[in-house]
Amino acid sequence: MADGPLRDIRILDLTHVWAGPLATRVLADLGATVVKIEGPMSRGPREFRSGTPIGGWLGGAPPPEPWNLNAVFVKQQRNKQSVAIDLKTADGRATFLELAQEADIVMENFSARAMPDLGLDYDDVAAVNPRIVYVSMPGYGKSGPYRERVAFGPTVEPLSGLTNVMGYGPDEPRNTAMALMDPITGINATAAVLDALRRRERTGKGAYVEMSLHEGGVTYSGPWLIEHQLGRDIQPIGNRHPRMAPHGVYPCAGDDAWIALACRDDADWRALTEVVDGLPCEADLAQRLEIHERIDEAISRWTSLRTKNDAAAALQAAGLPAGPVNVTPDMTADAQVQARGFFVPLEPGPTPMPGNPIKMPGIGSADWTPCPRLGNDNRTVLRDWLGYDGARLAALEEAGVLVDKPPK
Description:
Strand content: 5-15%
Helix content: 25-40%
Number of helices: 17
Order of helices and strands: EHEHEHEHHEHHEHHEEHHHHEHHEEHH
Largest sheet: 6 strands, parallel
Number of domains: 2
CATH topology of the largest domain: Rossmann fold
CATH superfamily of the largest domain: Crotonobetainyl-coa:carnitine coa-transferase, domain 1
Strand order of the largest sheet: 3-2-1-4-5-6
Shape: elongated
């Protein structure tokens, strides 16, 4: 597995979708041994008879083993091992608890009732390993009136307050449609794990770490909570900014091509008037906010005659914060990320995977491993961690407790 500062840490990863898998991916990138505990059907059925999953397939076309090449799933699973085990069986549950005795961390982001229903909640695991760090991240937490609610990122986001300030006007609320709560909570979880491990170093005790998608989003609403406390009006203002003008995204030459621009202060404004024709040379912030639409029209006329990269270069040359709005092909081909080697050609197919934004000695992608096949490491992990012999492993496979492909 990847070498790094967490090389001696063992993690049992029961997470799914985005928040949890992102957290364990970051920890795996930092060298932790992450064993992904998967259900027999966790990657979907053996055959996809119609449709395409969100994100499509690696390589573009439906592969012979679709469950192993779902692009969205694969993206989050590098540097991990896969043990596919049916936790709903007595033998599966017993085997998991044996693994938990050898682990440092268990992470899950199921609904609040899923792990208790399996008999694998924190109390069950701590009974066999008091030093365990057990991380749960359900949509609304393990307590409160919403604990049983079904949670999904785009439905949690409005409840967090973010949707209240998103959109292009008071009559048109929007949300990101990108499940923003998931990556927020995933990164929070990595910090929580490191905090809990440091605490265990001092006290020798494990910990139960609980977080929720909902509260992760609420933490991003601080500025608007303050505005509300001060009695100010809070309204969605789209791409504009309450303390900057102009501030927005403007159309450029080409098909669906755009550039983002921020004018931070009067010095930026004077620089902008030297580049873009038709702007009043002297205008303070209050005046610019008042005539924002006229300013936007003038900027749009200027940007629409230039490609987004040419427009960005001209504005940057004048000292203005500006940049092209990149779509996926632009992102992977961008000169900056190319120079820094951020995207990593780890998986099959033409699109490289995002790398690790943490850059420090001893951390890199040279020793990374791609997403494992379902159940790829069943025998290796159970032999190395628990000393299972061939006969015992074969019996678990024969009983369907261990699998390496979906049952149907």
